[in-house]
Design goal:
alpha/beta, 8 helices, 227 residues, 6 strands
């Protein structure tokens, strides 16, 4: 079953933006901005949805919340602009990717937009954060919204590969129908947990095997990513 081309993210947003929690969420963000910076910039909060239309979603990489220092967050989980120093978790993601494909060549760009444009939805569970305060926007409403995003994908798409890294993302497990989709689980790629099973998980090659099984174009993880 292919996705109904008449269904898009706009259908989800038109429903959610009218709900009380969503209105309260943005009122809370406005209040927070009165005394501290909030990342990413407002125009980039929903960047993942702009770069990966619903009809293109083949893979979901679920992160926790945005990086919390100036210039880092730009609306894509684990990604930072190329001019920014590579965060530790992203370094470990690249290390596992290159080990997975035995492809050790030059450095990789930090911006994961090439993945997003191939159908990898880079979704954080929490879409904003206060300056220098990781996890600061928990329980203000984002979890409700991103749970709805996962349910929306679960319902309207088929054969999506969900990469759940770490205990926070494991909590979304029951939102996904494994008769329609695939789930790959591993510890978080942060330096604190990467040696507990993230290294060696081979999620990138496994994802491509699953996509091929569903007769979908695999992800070229290195396309426009090497310099």
């Amino acid at each position: 079953m292919e996705i109904n081309k008449n269904i898009s993210w706009s259908n989800l947003f038109s429903i959610e933006k009218k709900k009380k929690y969503f209105i309260n969420l943005f009122n809370e963000i406005e209040n927070i901005q009165k005394y501290t910076a909030v990342y990413p910039p407002k125009k980039m909060i929903f960047n993942a949805f702009l770069l990966t239309p619903l009809s293109n979603v083949k893979v979901v990489i679920l992160g926790q919340d945005p990086y919390c220092h100036a210039g880092q967050a730009h609306g894509l989980s684990f990604s930072v602009p190329n001019k920014i120093l590579t965060p530790p978790s992203l370094k470990n993601i690249f290390k596992e990717l290159q080990n997975d494909f035995l492809f050790y060549k030059n450095k990789m760009f930090n911006c994961l937009e090439p993945w997003a444009k191939q159908g990898v939805l880079l979704l954080n569970s929490i879409l904003t954060v206060s300056d220098s305060a990781p996890g600061s926007h928990r329980r203000i409403g984002w979890e409700i919204f991103t749970n709805q995003v996962i349910k929306f994908i679960n319902h309207f798409c088929t054969g999506v590969v969900f990469l759940l890294w770490g205990s926070f993302s494991f909590s979304k497990y029951n939102l996904i129908n494994q008769k329609k989709h695939f789930i790959l689980k591993a510890p978080h790629p942060s330096p604190l947990s990467c040696f507990r099973g993230f290294f060696g998980c081979r999620h990138f090659s496994k994802t491509n095997k699953l996509l091929k099984y569903k007769k979908k174009q695999p992800i070229n993880w290195f396309k426009n990513m090497i310099y």
